[in-house]
Each structure stands twice: as structure tokens, then as C-alpha cells.
Amino acid sequence: MSKSFVLSALVAGVIAVPAVAGETEGHVLAYDRQDNIIVLTDKSVWELPADIETPADLGHGDRVLFEFESGGDDDGITAITAMHRLAVATPEGTDGGS
Q1: Phi, psi values for residue 6, rounded to 5°
Q2: 10, 19, 25, 74: which sits with the fewest CB atoms below 10 Å from its CB?
Q3: Domain contains 42
Q4: With the C-alpha atoms ordered 32, 35, 37, 43, is the resulting torsion angle positive or negative?
Q5: Which residues partner with 84 through β-bridges?
Q6: Higher per-residue confidence, 96 vs 28
Q7: Residue 48 is part of which domain span?
Q8: Domain annotation covers residue 77
Q9: pLDDT: which is higher, 71 or 49
Q10: For 88, which DSSP code?
């Protein structure tokens, strides 16, 4: 093997940034069912891929968790891989106790 090939392989290995998995959660502020976009109360906007299922009754105040992949610091989120509803919002005017 040539020295330049080995050097190139080492440089490529150092430069390549692996995908990083992450997750975040928040409360739903708004949900556009037609465009499959969820806005959380922190004003972050999550455009879900068509293959991610959402509960039919997902709505304002529900707590959700998003799982995603990112390409590193500069690439931001590259894919949303899952969305889970963690809690259903308590209807206004109820105490939520048992």
C-alpha cells in the first residue's frame, strides 16, 4: 500500500463526522395535521416525515418526545426517526387528580 493512500485514509477518518443520535421533548403548542408539522411551546418547529405515525388525537398541551439524528455541530438535524406522546394534556377546567 502506498503511503499517500494510508495518509488519505487517515485524514478521511479524522474528517468524517459520524451521525449523532439525540432526543428532545416538549409540549405541543400547535399541530398542523395536513403538513405534519408540530410546533412546541419553546417555538421549535418539527416537520415530521410521512412515515412517522402520530396519535389521531394529538393536540395542544400534549407532551411529546422526538428522536433524531444529526450530522454534527454544523449540520443540525438530518432526520427525525421517531415521535412519542409522553402525556396527554389535561382538559382545561379539570384538576387532573384522582
Answers
A1: -60, -45
A2: 74
A3: yes
A4: negative
A5: 65
A6: 28
A7: 18-87
A8: yes
A9: 49
A10: P
| 3 in a structural domain | no
Would you say residue 74 has pLDDT above 80? Answer: no
Domain with 75 in it: what CATH number?
Answer: 2.40.50.320
**Considering only CA atoms, which of 23, 18, 38 is closest in space to residue 81?**
23
Rg (the chain; Cα; Å)? 20
Percent of the chain with pLDDT over 90: 60
The answer to whether 25 and 38 have CB atoms below 8 angstroms apart is: no
CA distances (Å), 42 to each of 6, 53, 62, 95, in order? 47, 22, 13, 24
In a domain, 61, yes or no: yes
The DSSP secondary structure of 25-78, one letter per residue, reads EEEEEEEETTTTEEEETT--EEE--TTS---TT--TT-EEEEEEEE-STTT-EE
Residues 55-67 have pLDDT tens digits of 999 999 999 999 9
